[in-house]
C-alpha cells in the first residue's frame, strides 16, 4: 500500500489493509514516519500481518515543502496537486497531442467526454475547471505532471481495483475497464466497521459534551453541518489564514448560535456522529469516502463540491437522485441563502421527500456487508 500523503487517501488504504489482513494477506503500508504515527493502531491479532514501512521525505530547495510537512493537512491549499479521475479517459488522451485535441483548455472540462456513451452529467462547471486543468496537466515542482504520473501508472499496472460496486455504478465500472484496457475489479464499498472505536472510547471533553447535546435533540432533525427548523453540528478545519480557532469564524458567531447548534474546529469523530440517531442529513464536499459513510446511514445528502473529483462525485449522485447540490454562481461564489435553501429542500420540505426516500433505499446497498464481502473475497483470490 502506497497511498498519497493525504488522510482522505491514507485512511481508506489503511482500512483496506485491515480487511486484507483479516483475510490472511500480508500487507506493507508505506508512508512517512509522521503519517504512520498518526494512523490508528491495527487490532493486536492483525499486527503481525501489517508491516509499516517508513521513509523520510527529502529536503526540497526554495521552501517548496514546509519543514515537518508530511501530509496535505500540513501544507497550504496552493501546494496541493491532485490525481485525476476516470473522467480523463483512456491513457492516450491524458498526455501528448491526443490530450491537446480532447482537452485543450479548462473550458473543455465542461463537456461530457466523448467516450461516455450513456446519459450522464459527468463534467466540471465554471470555476471548477481552472484548478483541475492546471493542477492535473500543469507542471509542478516534481518535474512530472499529475497527468503524466497517472498515464505511467495505468500503462504499467496489470489491473485496476476500485472501491465501488456494480449495484451503484455498473456503467462506469464497465467503461473504466474499456478505457484503461485493464481488468477492473470492484472491491465493494468496504462498509465501515461499526465495531470500531465507539462513542464510549472518545476522551476529548468537547466531543463528549457535543454528543450529550446530540442526545437532547429530536431524532433525525439535525444536520451535520440551524437553518429554519434544523439544528446543526458544524465540523470545521481551521483555514490556513486563521491565526487561531476564534479567528476562523466571524466575530461573535459562536455566542450568537449557541442555542442553535455546535461548532467544532479540528478533528471530528465522523462515523460516530453520522451514526447518532439525531443526525438526519449532511452538508459536505462530496468526497467519495464521506459519501459512503453518509449513505451507509441513509442520511440526506446536500453537497458543495470544491476540488478534484468532488464535482464529478456530486454530478453522479445528482443523476442518481441521491443528493442535492447547493446552487453556485458561474464564478463559484455562493451565499448563506443558497446553503439555507438547499438544506431546507433536502432536510424538511415536501419537495425533498423523494431525495430522503432514495437515500434510505441506498443505505440498503451501502451498509450491506454480505453484499460487499464477495467482491472483496474475489479480489483476495
TrEMBL record:
SUPFAM superfamilies according to UniProt: UDP-Glycosyltransferase/glycogen phosphorylase
Keyword Repeat appears in the UniProt entry: no
Keywords assigned by UniProt, alphabetized: Transferase
Pfam families: UDPGT
Lineage top rank: taxon: Eukaryota
Gene3D superfamilies: Glycogen Phosphorylase B
Record-linked CDD domains: GT1_Gtf-like (cd03784)
Gene Ontology MF annotations: UDP-glucosyltransferase activity
PANTHER family: GLYCOSYLTRANSFERASE, UDP-GLYCOSYLTRANSFERASE 91C1-LIKE
Family designation: Belongs to the UDP-glycosyltransferase family.
Name this polypeptide is given: UDP-glycosyltransferases domain-containing protein
Organism: Acer yangbiense
Taxonomy of the source species: Eukaryota, Viridiplantae, Streptophyta, Embryophyta, Tracheophyta
Amino acid at each position: 500500500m502506497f497511498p498519497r500523503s493525504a488522510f482522505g487517501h491514507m485512511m481508506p488504504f489503511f482500512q483496506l489493509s485491515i480487511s486484507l489482513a483479516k483475510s490472511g494477506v500480508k500487507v506493507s503500508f508505506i508512508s512517512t514516519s509522521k503519517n504512520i504515527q498518526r494512523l490508528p493502531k491495527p487490532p493486536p491479532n492483525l499486527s503481525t500481518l501489517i508491516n509499516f514501512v517508513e521513509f523520510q521525505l527529502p529536503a526540497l530547495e526554495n521552501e517548496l515543502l514546509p519543514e515537518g510537512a508530511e501530509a496535505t493537512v500540513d501544507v497550504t491549499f496552493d501546494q496541493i496537486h491532485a490525481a485525476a479521475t476516470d473522467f480523463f479517459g483512456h491513457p492516450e488522451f491524458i498526455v501528448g497531442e491526443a490530450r491537446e485535441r480532447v482537452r485543450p483548455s479548462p473550458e473543455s472540462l465542461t463537456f461530457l467526454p466523448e467516450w461516455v456513451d450513456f446519459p450522464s452529467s459527468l463534467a466540471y462547471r465554471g470555476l471548477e475547471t481552472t484548478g483541475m486543468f492546471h493542477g492535473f496537466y500543469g507542471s509542478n515542482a516534481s518535474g512530472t505532471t499529475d497527468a503524466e504520473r497517472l498515464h505511467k501508472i495505468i500503462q504499467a499496472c496489470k489491473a485496476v481495483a476500485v472501491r465501488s460496486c456494480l449495484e451503484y455504478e455498473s456503467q462506469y465500472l464497465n467503461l473504466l475497464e474499456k478505457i484503461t484496457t485493464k481488468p477492473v475489479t470492484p472491491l465493494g464499498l468496504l462498509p465501515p466497521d461499526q465495531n470500531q472505536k465507539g462513542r464510549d472510547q472518545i476522551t476529548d471533553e468537547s466531543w463528549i459534551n457535543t454528543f450529550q447535546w446530540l442526545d437532547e435533540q429530536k431524532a433525525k432533525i439535525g444536520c451535520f453541518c440551524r437553518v429554519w427548523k434544523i439544528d446543526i453540528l458544524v465540523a470545521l478545519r481551521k483555514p490556513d489564514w486563521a491565526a487561531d480557532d476564534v479567528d476562523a469564524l466571524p466575530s461573535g458567531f459562536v455566542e450568537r448560535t449557541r442555542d442553535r447548534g455546535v461548532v467544532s474546529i479540528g478533528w471530528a469523530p465522523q462515523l460516530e456522529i453520522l451514526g447518532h440517531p439525531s443526525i438526519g442529513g449532511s452538508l459536505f464536499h462530496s468526497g467519495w469516502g464521506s459519501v459512503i459513510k453518509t449513505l451507509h446511514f441513509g442520511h440526506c445528502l446536500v453537497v458543495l463540491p470544491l476540488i478534484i473529483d468532488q464535482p464529478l462525485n456530486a454530478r453522479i449522485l445528482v443523476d442518481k437522485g441521491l443528493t442535492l447540490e447547493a446552487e453556485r454562481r458561474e464564478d463559484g461564489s455562493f451565499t448563506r441563502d443558497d446553503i439555507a435553501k438547499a438544506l431546507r429542500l433536502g432536510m424538511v420540505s415536501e419537495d425533498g421527500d423523494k431525495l430522503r426516500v432514495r437515500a434510505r433505499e441506498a443505505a440498503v446497498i451501502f451498509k450491506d456487508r454480505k453484499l460487499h464481502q464477495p467482491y472483496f473475497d474475489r479480489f483476495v483470490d
